[in-house]
């Protein structure tokens, strides 16, 4: 029996997970989907209601039916030979997604997390609705491409804008990040371009500090994040060097709401972000079903790798 780790070639959390699982006597297979099809091949046959066969690299071959748990750790997209033209490349990408991806997704194993659940959970508007339904406090939010609706919303109170999807784009070979931005008069004076797509605006939540909560199966670890700069106070991702951390216990009602949310979204792993107000109220911001935890483990000593390894072992036991 084995655990499959799907991760990028360079991933320190995946690096740490391999020995953690091997120390538990588990056969570990680590792959990057970007290896397909040039460095990874698939041969799968439908037998008895499940896919049997193998995945093969230059160095290893392992059977699909031996896999009992899969850690889906944000692997990269498929990488195709340079000789393909644009049409051929797009066709190959679709076939790889539904071929290799479809075979893996159908394996009757423990997934952390299943790719379909990851895809569902990526919709921030759906997250907010589910979180509110589960009893968590969520900020007033507007999704719009209408500048007048945005101005009306901003006139009602201090507001921020943040990305709905990826926090960065690549333009001209340069990666550009879009962090949470506190709206000011200059922003409201010039709203050209807002009509071109959907935007997310939220009411600013009064903030004492923030917290990242890591849910791994039944284990919940929460670290308060204290900002040491004005930029980090708005969005702590802008200034990691000026952050300090401490492990904290969330209120019982928040913890219960989080457990209901994870169950409703069928997630066994999640990194959730909260704002803790001056009155110690907790406001839910988002859940990232593939969110990072390594730096929290390094900063606090919380045994997150061991917790995740134990969760993956449950698919084998």
List the uncertain runs: none
- Estimated structural class: alpha+beta
Strand content: 25-35%
Shape: globular
Element pattern in H and E? EHEEEEEHEHHEHEEEEHEEEHEHEEHH
Between the first and last Cα atoms, what is the distance in angstroms?
10 Å
Number of strands: 18
Number of helices: 10
The strand order across the widest sheet is: 16-15-14-17-18
Please give the share of residues in helix: 25-40%
| Average pLDDT level | 94
The value of Rg in angstroms is 22 Å
Instruction: Give a short account of the largest sheet.
Output: 5 strands, antiparallel
What does this structure look like?
The protein is an alpha+beta fold and 317 residues long. It is 31% helix and 31% strand. It is built from 10 helices and 18 strands. It has helices spanning 12-22, 86-105, 115-121, 124-133, 147-155, 185-189, 230-234, 252-264, 294-300, 304-313; strands at residues 2-7, 27-31, 41-47, 50-56, 61-63, 67-73, 110-112, 141-144, 159-162, 168-171, 174-177, 181-182, 199-203, 209-216, 219-227, 243-248, 269-276, 282-288. The strands form 5 sheets. The protein has a 5-stranded antiparallel sheet with strand order 16-15-14-17-18, sandwiched between helices. It has a 4-stranded parallel sheet with strand order 2-1-6-7, covered by helices on one side. α1 links the parallel β1 (2-7) and β2. It is globular. The model has no long low-confidence stretch (mean pLDDT 94).
